[in-house]
Amino acid sequence: MDHQRVFVKVVGFTDVERHALNTVFRLSEHRDPAYAPWIEGVQGMPAAPEILLVDGESAEAVLTHVRELPAGQRLIWVGPGAPAHAWRVLSRPIQWAILLTDLDAMFAARLADSGYVDLDISTPVPLDATAGAPRHERGLLVGPDGPDRQRLADWLGAAGFESVDTAPGTDEAVALIGRQTYAMVILDIDAPLVDAWSLAALLARTAPDALVLGLSEHAGPLTAWWRRRRLIRHVDNSPMQGLLARPVDQTQLREAISRWRRPG
C-alpha cells in the first residue's frame, strides 16, 4: 500500500503546544500513516481535512459547536466544553502519544474493509513503536528547566513515554528514583544542583536497564574541541549511555531512544 497521509486542521493552542504538535507531525513522516497540518488554500491540500483538532479554550472553538462537520471528518477536542459530536475529548497537559493513538484509530477505521468501524484504542502507541517495545515507559528529567524541560517532556511524550517526571536537583531525583521505576533519565550536567555522575552511578545499580543520558551545552559544536572531547570522555567512562547537546535537538534524542530500543 502506498504511503498514506492524513491531514489535520489545528484550531487554537499555545505556541508551546503547537511546537509539540509540529514535532509529532515531523516524526510521523517515518510512519504509515503520516500526519500533516491542513492549510486552507495551499496547493495539493484536500478540500477538507480528515481531522479537526480544536483547543476548547480558544476564541474560535465556539464556531465548532454550530458548524456541521463535513462527511467523514472527526473532531478531537482539547479542554472543557466539548460539543456532543466530538469524537475524542482530551485534557491538559496533552498526552501526545494518546493523541497519536486516536489518530491511528481514526485512520484504521476509515480503511476497514467491512465499512466504517469505530475503533477505540486506549493504550498509547509510541511514534517509533517496535515489536516487543516496553509498555508504560516512564521518563525522568533532572535539572533542565524552561524551554529545554518543556521540549524534552513533549518529545518523550511523542516517543511513547507514558509519564515524564522532573526534578530540579540531586536530592529530589534520588527521592523519585526510590519511588518510581524509570526507563529513561536525562541528567543536566550543567545544572548547579545536579550531581550527574553520582546519579548515573545510582541508576546503574538500581535501574541497570534504563537509558541514562547526559545533557550539556559543552557537547555542542560551538564549544572548544578540547572541552567537548574531555566531556565526551568523562561520559564514556561513566554509566551514562550517551550525551545530548544543548540546545536540545529532537533528532539526537530520537536516535538515542531508537538505539536503546533496538539493542545490537
Automatic annotation (TrEMBL):
Domain of life: Bacteria
The entry's keywords: Phosphoprotein
SUPFAM superfamilies in alphabetical order: CheY-like (SSF52172)
Ranges of residues in domain Response regulatory: 138-261
Keyword Phosphoprotein: yes
4-aspartylphosphate: residues bearing it: D188
The protein, known as: Response regulatory domain-containing protein
Taxonomic source organism: Hydrogenophaga bisanensis
